[in-house]
Amino acid sequence: MTLLPLGVLLLAAISPVFSEAAANNTFRPGEELRKYRRIRAHVKRLNKPPVKTIQSPDGDLIDCVLSHLQPAFDHPRLKGLKPLDPPERPRGHNPAGTITDDSFQLWRTSGESCPDGTVAIKRTKEEDILRASSVKRFGRKPAVRTRHDSESSGHEHAVGYVVGDQYYGAKASLNVWAPKVSSPDEFSLSQIWLISGTFGSDLNTIEAGWQVSPQLYGDTSPRFFTYWTSDAYQATGCYNLLCSGFIQTNNMIAIGAAISPVSAYSGGQYDLSLLVWKDPDHGNWWLELGTGVLLGYWPSFLFTHLSEHASMVQFGGEIVNTQPLGLHTSTEMGSGHYAGEGFGKASYFRSLQVVDWDNSLIPVPNLRVLADHPNCYDIHGGINRVWGNYFYYGGPGRSHRCS
Fold it and tell me: Which of 9, 277, 317, 402 has the smallest number of Cβ neighbours within 10 A?
């Protein structure tokens, strides 16, 4: 977006806002000007001065920012600090995944990377914020619950989960797809959730995986993402690095950037391995990708319940159903195909593990599976010698089975 001087009415820069307002006969120049100033100020806060900028083939700009200047260190409790050294990994950890290095993102295809001492951050643009419902809600999920949600929430899941113990981390491998999302207000994602608190105002979550979200990213590419909240998605937390929270330590991966390649129906399957675990010494929650690539950590002080441990772990898919025209959405989950189609056609999670009190990875005990709307998105689990605990999940949304 081209930024015009504030004295030139800003018509070109915020034409989407003005056009909509004019169409509704609610054009208020002063109000729109204040909104635009808020957007510019927010973009300036998020985009730190880069040492280097890399142009991605999909149009993203990846800024290489000095690690101690990243957005996390705007937090009052982090000002003046630097990222911590990595902790000891959980016992029994064997890095795995067919995405075997840190060049699985589109912006790395040119061979460029960020220099040592910096972190790779996807630049936020004004149009990104204009797609959000407000500047305040930019980068946040709607205030929703996860599992046990009411049917009217619009969020639908197909998940495997464990509950009833104390969990200090989780690990799984999941294959990456590019599901169709039928409305800009909807998304489709596959992720790991670490959850504590009650499904109300004090819910704590840590989340990581891949998602397609046209509203957040402006396209339909699957992107690697993180999320956290300490108050059930109300006022705390955000995606990726769009607020002070997650501290990135990696200069080769940009959280929020597009993943390439992705799995193909009856073709090649590409999966990534994710590990989230709690550092026994400092209590921070660390994130590792693929074959031992550390991305960074969520400081323990961000949370209330998760400052101790998780009480539930979930693996699986989630979509938003806005019920266009009063019908179920045709937004796909996973590959867009039902679990029964199996390998190469359905989405999967495999090698499900949790971290116990002794910082050891163990197979998921007593895995349960649940699909909120099994006619639309279903799930089937199992266990075998090669994959350990696993499940297939997903579906097409609106179809002859789902209406």
Answer: 9
The rounded distance, in Å, linking the Cα atoms of 320 and 149 is 13
R_g (Cα) of the chain, nearest Å: 21
Residue 108 has pLDDT above 50, yes or no: yes
Nearest to 398 by CA among 346, 331, 326, 320: 331
Rounded CA separation 347/325 (Å): 28
**Taking the domains of the chain in order of start, what are their residue ranges?**
1-46, 52-394
Residues designated catalytic: 207, 318
Helices 29-46 and 15-23, axial angle in degrees (round to 10)? 150
Q: Which two tokens stand for residue 2?
A: 């081209």
204: which 2 tokens?
A: 């704590």
Query: CA-to-CA distance for 153 and 116, rounded, in angstroms?
Result: 44
The phi, psi pair for 170, rounded to 5°, reads -155, 155
Nearest to 140 by CA among 250, 14, 45, 225: 225
The tokens describing 374, both together, are 């099994």
What amino acid is encoded at 205 in this protein?
Answer: T
What pTM was computed for the model?
0.89
DSSP states along 112-147: --PPTTEEEEEPP-HHHHHTSS-TTTTT---S--ST
pLDDT at 359 (0 to 100): 96
Query: 131-163 burial, b if ≥16 CB within 10 A, otherwise e?
Result: beeeeeebbbbeebbbbebeeeebbbbbbbbbe
Listing DSSP states for 243-303 in one string gives SS--EE--SS--BTPBB-S---TTS---EEEEEEEE-TTT--EEEEETTTEEEEEE-GGG-
pLDDT in tens, 345-367: 999 999 999 999 999 999 999 99
**220-270 pLDDT per residue, tens:** 999 999 999 999 998 899 999 999 999 999 999 999 999 999 999 999 999
What is the token pair recorded at 335? 């590959």
